Amino acid sequence: MTEPIDLTGRRLLVTGGSGFLGRRVLSELQRKGVDEGTVFVPRSARYDLTRQEAVGRVYRDARPDVVIHLAARVGGIGANRRHPGPFFYDNLVMGAEMLEGARLEAVEKFVGLGTICSYPKLTPVPFREDDLWNGYPDETNAPYGIAKKALLVQGQAYRREYGLNAIYLLLVNLYGPGDNFDPESSHVIPALIRKCVDARESGADAVECWGDGSSTREFLYVDDAARAIVMATESYASEEPVNVGAGAEISIRKLAELIAELTGFAGRLVWDVTKPNGQPRRCLDVTRAERAFGFRASTPLRKGLQRTIEWYERAIEATARRPSSAPR
Prior knowledge:
The structure is a single chain. The chain is of the alpha/beta class. It has one domain (about 5-320): Rossmann fold (3-Layer(aba) Sandwich). About 45% of the residues lie in helices and about 15% in strands. The chain has helices spanning about 20-30, 50-60, 75-80, 85-105, 140-160, 190-200, 220-235, 250-265, 285-295, 300-320; strands at about 10-15, 40, 65-70, 110-115, 165-170, 175, 205-210, 215, 220, 240-245, 250, 270. The strands form 4 sheets. It has a 6-stranded parallel sheet with strand order 2-1-3-4-5-10, sandwiched between helices. The chain has a two-stranded parallel ribbon with strand order 6-9. Helix 8 (about 250-265) crosses helix 10. The protein is globular and about 60 Å long. It starts with 11 loop residues before the first strand and ends in a 7-residue tail after the last helix.
């Protein structure tokens, strides 16, 4: 572990700071004593980070010492299959322009986020960082995974060429309160929660699930992820990528059964085998994160799911209580 950076004495630029993960990172920074007045959070309506001019403006306006680049186009298998072009282009260009801006402005540190989707389709479990280049990612989200992996290559190149302290964290699938529950773009946990709650409320006797349930995934509670990002920002300074996860896998079938139990849905889970499973297995070796900056996940999956379900049920109850808009 290197000598930590005191973030309370730095100006921070946090892209994606108003998003699902970004809000937790801001909360974690405040918990560490960072004054919110020293944190700049660009909004997409004003700063389109796929545009060089907008990226230049955000650096001029923020004048950051440290950049935490969380902004990304994300979604589940369905969204990735429908829109591979934007998933590739937006993530590639945002990463490239943000890193180039960091170089031009000579920032002290750049924190880039990668994804478990970048790993080769048939990576041996648990995934080790050295396996990252041993094959092509799963076809269902390869454009997204490759675009995000390019940020690692650029960060390493800029470290060697320009001395930029760029680090790169590989995150597993995140979940938690405030997640995206839109059925068109959500990941598996919010999608299953919504399906099970809706089926319970409507009295439906079955919920449809994608694939055959055999594939495995690893999930990290969003607050744990935020804690890891801030810890790495403070204490990690190497060019080597670092896995950030819980270090445990669960099959999609077992996950669906657990969510059905926790939501009180007593009907059948019906598996649509015409839909893709995605990558066969996903589970990270997380020893480097613990060794390099002391991170270990602390939220068990069952507890995290309970919190997420409770949040979602409160959200739909609040929506139901709102008065209807007057017709135009």
